[in-house]
Amino acid sequence: MVTRDSVWPEGTPCWADLGVSDIPKAISFYTAVFGWDLPPGPAEMGGYSIATVGGRQVAAVGPKMASQDAPSAWTVYLATDDADATAAKITGAGGHLLMGPMDVMDEGRLAVATDTTGAVFGVWQGRTHTGFRLANAPGALTWNEHFGRDFEGAKAFYAAVFGYEYGDMSSDQFTYATLLLGGHEVGGIGAYPAGTPESMPSAWSTYFGSTDTDKTVQRVIEAGGSVVRQPADSPYGRIAVVADDQGASFSVISVAAG
Predict the structure, then answer these.
(1) How far apart are CA 147 and CA 40, in angstroms?
(2) Are 240 and 249 within 8 A, CB to CB?
(3) Are 158 and 179 a contacting pair, CB within 8 Å?
């Protein structure tokens, strides 16, 4: 379990939010699945609602940033000390800005972009809102990773923008690396395996912690969600991939209660 009240180091996944058409429906779903304290957000913020566990913020639910026809999805935000400088690096490395950089009141400065593989991600320069205040715990984010078809191109892009180094974890069966900042793992990056449907876009994904992955998956089903990949053991915990009742996918992984 990690708690933090200050801004996260540059390049670290520091926040995740869900963009949906029906915010009250999403609040009901995630409250049932994770037990989040998730009161409706203020109208002047579009209903943007902050979820907490034990009083510490872990994620948010808000309106879609793109067209209402866009699919519901989780967005991963990477920390920066200077959103404008990072935005310039993104475009310089071949990415595209979708939004910002822009101030979000006194909470921080935001940009949303696509990388060279088309995956959407956010950039957050924290001020009052520093990002996750709890991680690697039940109901909180535990891991974030990028998957696409241009593995080397994606690695080159994120190294240019955030200075990542990479820890190779590839084998004959899969292609994967960890994102390293100062020698510390902060996320992962991988290539889709052969046979992945061409319709599957490059994307960042989020993993939420659970003391019992199977029970959490059952709560997902009972709340109207679906199972994308059944629970299975891994060297890092028991993992399942699910989707909420508005189609946004996320992963669940077992973590210790403490």
Answers:
(1) 32
(2) no
(3) yes
Give ∠ CA 162-74-239 in degrees, rounded to 5.
Answer: 95
User: Mind listing the pLDDT tens digit of every residue in the chain (258 residues)?
Assistant: 999 999 999 999 999 999 999 999 999 999 999 999 999 999 888 899 999 999 999 999 999 987 777 889 999 999 999 999 999 999 999 999 999 899 999 999 999 999 999 999 999 999 999 999 999 999 999 999 999 999 999 999 999 999 999 999 988 788 999 999 999 999 999 999 888 888 889 999 999 999 999 999 999 999 999 999 999 999 999 999 999 999 999 999 999 876
| CB-count burial class (<10 Å; 0-12, 13-18, 19+) for 128 | exposed
- 198 DSSP 8-state letter: T
Which residues are paired to 227 by β-bridges? Answer: 242
What's the token pair of residue 151? 């593995």
DSSP state of 43: G
Amino acid at residue number 180: L
Cα–Cα distance between 90 and 42 in angstroms, integer? Answer: 32
Q: Which two tokens stand for residue 39?
A: 């009161």
101: preceding bond cis by omega (within 30 degrees): yes
Give the integer Cα–Cα distance in Å for 234 and 253: 9
**pTM recorded for the entire structure:** 0.96
CA dihedral 70, 18, 229, 134 (to 10 degrees): 160
Q: Which helix (H) or strand (E) holds 19?
A: strand 13-20
118 φψ region: left (φ > 0), alpha (ψ -120 to 50), beta (else)? left
**Paired tokens of 74:** 């989780």
Would you state the structure tokens that stand for residue 18, as one six-digit string?
């869900």
CA distance 114 to 122: 9
